[in-house]
Amino acid sequence: MSEPTPSPSAATAPPAGVPEGDDVQVAFDVGDLPGGARGAIEAVLMIVEEPVTDHALSSALELPVEEIREHLGALEEAYADGRHGFTVRNVGGGWRFYSHHAYAPVVERFVLDGQQSRLTTASLETLAVIAYRQPISRARIGAIRGVNVDGVVRTLLTRGLIVEVTKDEESNATLYGTTPYFLERMGLNTLDDLPPIAPYLPDAAVLDELVNEARP
User: Fold this and answer.
1) Do 81 and 75 touch, CB atoms closer than 8 A?
2) Residues 186-213: pLDDT tens digits?
3) Cα separation of 80 and 93, whole Å?
4) Which CATH number fits domain 30-103: 1.10.10.10, 3.40.50.150, 1.10.238.10, 3.40.1190.20?
5) Where are the residues of the annotated region Disordered (predicted)?
6) Which site from 15, 20, 35, 62 is most exposed, i.e. has the minimal number of CB atoms within 10 Å?
7) Strand pairing partners for 174?
């Protein structure tokens, strides 16, 4: 006697206890994780792009909101001593990791270095003109480059590479020069260590002529 053939529904049915369709979720018990609930909270906070609420964490970890809040408070206290470079904070109604304020100088330096590496060609050209012709006004910089340099000058000011050094006595125009940070980034001790390319730039008389021609 031949064995009965299973029906299509029986042949394709998932094992007992496994949900069907797109609603499949990974089953876990927070208590079985190596770091427990606090480790689970850290893992979630590590990957969020926006602050996450304690209610969202409660739903994800299937734990009471009050218990989540206790763990968050304990984590915040544990990281408050500055022995870690980060901390957990509640900002804008949600929780996430932030760099610890004690390491602000390191973070600032890293950000500035990153900005410097992304200077555009226009910024580098403008910076070169300022370095070799300082103190120099925006009008003279623009005359040399042949374009409006207002935006580029603001960028260089923001990044700490140049600074307003004085005012021109005749025109009252602001004159710009480079900063010690510029020398540091260029690996120079003084401006005298700049490569000798200044002779290839127009002299002051030519610059004055160009500026006058550019005026309406």
Assistant:
1) no
2) 878 888 888 876 555 556 566 566 556 5
3) 19
4) 1.10.10.10
5) 1-22
6) 15
7) 167
